[in-house]
Write a structure and sequence with these properties.
The protein has five helices and no strands. With 121 residues, the protein is mostly helical. It has one domain. Helix 1 packs antiparallel against helix 2. It is elongated. The protein starts with a helix and ends in a 27-residue tail after the last helix.
């Protein structure tokens, strides 16, 4: 039994220490994150949406601070919407001349109750 508890604690530690590395593939980061969540679920450990969002926010680099702010300010945002914002931000980073996908200039269609445009400070 103690071995199982240790394994669960190791998974929780791994989940809370996950960091997105600048330039790394978003899919790799999200896949690792979701894999740990799935491993915890196999142990009958539920990670709430609020915990997932908090962990994702903490794992993002400073260059994605706008996403962290938007996610923090929008308690109803789903993990799917967060994933879409991260993907869009990384795509705009890869194609700086194409501001169409930039989080800074995108209407937040992921929020049913929000339609205003987010601008950088």
């Amino acid at each position: 039994m103690a071995s199982n508890e240790q394994a669960i604690q190791n998974l929780r530690n791994k989940l809370s220490s996950q960091l997105y590395v600048e330039g790394a593939e978003r899919e790799e980061h999200m896949n690792q994150f979701n894999n740990i969540i799935a491993q915890l679920a196999l142990q009958d450990i539920n990670v709430t949406e609020a915990e997932k969002k908090s962990l994702i926010i903490r794992s993002l680099p400073k260059s994605m601070s706008l996403i962290s702010t938007v996610v923090s300010a929008t308690p109803t945002m789903t993990m799917e919407a967060i994933d879409a914002l991260v993907r869009r931000d990384i795509e705009s980073e890869k194609n700086p001349n194409n501001q169409k996908g930039s989080t800074k200039t995108t209407y937040c269609q992921h929020f049913p109750t929000h339609s205003r445009k987010f601008e950088p400070y």
